[in-house]
Every structure is written in C-alpha cells, then in structure tokens.
Amino acid sequence: MRVLLELRPALDGHAGIPQETRLLFRSLASLPAVELEGLIQSGNKVLPAGASGSKQLSQDAVIDRQSRIVVALQQNDKVNRLEWLGQVARRVGAPLGMVVRSALGMRTDLSRFQPKHFEDFVWRSMFEKSLPLADRELVTSKAHRVARVPWAAMHMAGLLTLRLGHALYPRLDTRDFDVFVVETPFPGRVSRPTRMIVRYHDAIPLLMPHTIQKRGYHQASHFHALRRNVRDGAWFACVSEATRSDLVSIFPEAAERSVVIPNIVSHQYHDEPTPGSRVPEVLWARRNRRAPHGGGLTPPDRAGGLDYLLVVSTIEPRKNHQAVIDAWERLRTSDYPDLHLVFVGGLGWDHESTVARMTPWLERGGLHLLQNVPAEDLRLLYRHARATVCPSFAEGFDFAGVEAMRSGGAVAASDIPVHREVYGDAALYFSPYAPSELVDVLARLLTPSAAASKLRQDLVEFGRLVGSRYDAKVIAGEWAGFLTRVAGEAA
Asked: Which domains does the chain have, with CATH numbers?
C-alpha cells in the first residue's frame, strides 16, 4: 500500500499538530504493509521544482534542484530588492497558474525529493524536535514529493474563486498513491484512484469562530476546504469522538467515512524518578525573556523543591489562562501563600490581555512564564506539579493532560466533552466558566491530609492506565487497519 503523508506542519513548532505529524510519519513508516512518502510544502513560500518522474536529469542537476528546495524552505525575509521582486512574481504567478490549470481540469504535478545527501536537513528541520535519535535512519530514508505552491495560496485561490461562483482547488497528481493523509482540511484534491484521509483535529474555526485568530479568513478557509473534502468523498480520522460528533453535526454525509483514531503521545513523556530540587533551575533557565519577570527565584535562591500549579498551552483566549490566575490568587491569599503558578507556552494571538493580567505577579514573583521547554524539562515539571491544570473552553484532544499522566502527575481539567472522553476518571473536573470550582478542586489536592494524598495517588494510578491508550504502538495498529479499509474501498 503506497501512502503519501502531508509533512507541512512538521516544519513548524514543537507540540500539537506539528508533533503529531512527526509521530504519525514515524508510526506509518514502521508498518510493514505501508510504502510511505512525505509531501513537502511550505505554508507561505513558493518552492522550486524537484526532480521529475518523466524527465531524466543528470545527478548534479537533481542535487541542484533539491538543494534549492532546501534553501527556499529555510529562506528568511531579509532579501535584496531583486530577490524580493522574484519572490513576488513567484507568489503571484504560481497560484494563478494553479487556478488556470484547475479551471481546465489539469493536474498539478508533484516533483520528487530524494533525501540522500540531505539527511541532516530532513532530520533537524522536520523530525528532531519530537523523535528519538534511534528513529533517524527510519524517517530520513523515506522519499518525498514536493508541492511548489504554498498551502496558504491554495486556500486563498479557493476563497478568491468562490467569489466568482465556484471555489477551485488544485487537483494534485497523486496517481502513484493509494492514500493521501493530510493534516486539517486540505485545500486541494486528489487524482484517482487515490483516496484522501483528513486528520481532523477540531471544528473550532466553525463552531467557536470568536476564539480564533483572523476569524473571517480562518473560518472561511476551514469551511470551504472541509466542504470540498467531504464532497470529494474523503475519509476522516478524527482525534476524538467529540471532534467526530462536531464534524458529523456539520456534514452528516461524512458519518460513514469517519472514525476516531486518537493522537499519539510522545515516548518522551514517561514516569521517571527525578529530583524536585531541579524545578527552580528549570523555571530560571526556561523563562520567557520577553515577559516582564522581576522578582522571583534564581537557582541559588531555592535549594529544595517548590509547590506549584502547571498549565501547558499557547497563551491565547481559548485556553482560559485567566481563570487559572483567578483561582490561584484566591488560593495564594488564603491557605497557600507559597503556591507558585507556572505557565508553559508561546505567546499566541491576542495574548496581550492575558500577559497584562500576569504582569504584576511576573514582576513580584510567584508566577512564571516559560517558553521553549524541552521534553526532558517539561516531564520534570509535570511530575512535580501539585496539579497540571487543563482549563480550555474547547479542544480537539489536549495533549497536556495525557503528557502529565504519563509523566506521573495529577490533572485537573475543564469539564468539556473531549476532556471527559480523553482523560476519563484520571482527572478532577471543573467548569471553565467558574474559577470558584477550580479553587475547590485544587484545594482537594493541596490540603495536607491523608485523603488528599490518597486522591492524588489514585489519580496518578488511573493516569498511567489512561496514558497507555495513546502509546505509539497502540495507535499504529489502529492506523494499519484503517488504511487497509480505505485502500480496499479505493480498489
């Protein structure tokens, strides 16, 4: 079975969809019945063409083409005027050419990229952030295809042509593959006999558009690409039953072509005995240098451990950080004056009001904002936190709670359907709209009593069982069966 997997997200970020893309590639690459290739595409840059399947090129010409692809993917925005004009011409010309080809019913070619000679680029740019070194040979040995036109330009072409009455998305030349697996609704179409599988993470851009960045664009691009995928007969591998239910509520016709395959949680999160005395060092070393940290700890200040709550997610309104701050302030001003609060996550869209809410405590000390925390340090933070809090208003899966459980930590989560589904009995729940409920839940874990100790122990034990459901080998088996089913339908 020949499978093409979209790798665009793997070029970005550490956690979330980028991490899941890397882990999924590794898992599919390990399946004996799967012959896997990756699709290389930029989010916003036009790429040079790679080698052609029909045109014979000399070895030096092939190397030159592939080297220019690497350069284009790594190109920064500081270019001279001539280069800038060339970029503009390519960014306008390539999408226009794609629209014309789509209108004429022509396929968009996918050129070839062989990883030999470029293993360092493939490993460090796409896979190193999430995979162990032992996987390097496995993932860097796989061939790739190249889509020249940027993913964002494909979305924009669909939205612009929609104004003319019909959204046009390019039909990629995928005839060499039985299945094409994409992350999120894909602004393109496949060629027969290929079947598309959309890895569907959440319907938040449609059902909660007020919580996302660039609301109009993201809502429209998500909806119209998704509708095109549904009408083309795509299959959907949803990350949770909550996500599948949302999908089917919008497009009932997708019910028979949708299944639930949970996310893979990284091997890097496991229950490892580590000294809590390292926590202050991690807080100091990984703090966000753009945030106004003032007072607080340095490694010499605290030789022992630290009592703290932990939240791991991008700083944006949907993640509900402000409710955690409210609850923490109430706890700190009552019975727990030494309790710290640790946020781990990059500054996302519309983060300013949340950071403003944090600022007095960042300056005074007690609240910590960290970024670029490697898995080894994050595993330590999960294990020694009094609780990892997952307070979101909406999620498709929410890795943080499962990562905490696999690391030996206790979890408190907002009472939303996906948390109940993914975390089960291994978490304590509270309304995301009621900080007072979070105060009560956390007090049950913080109280110095035998009952609180047993409650935490029970949560950790339940968490080990829940965490094991998302092991790579377990999820790879689910994918193997699903791919066989979809490929069989195509035949």
From this structure: 2-264+472-490 (3.40.50), 276-468 (3.40.50.2000)
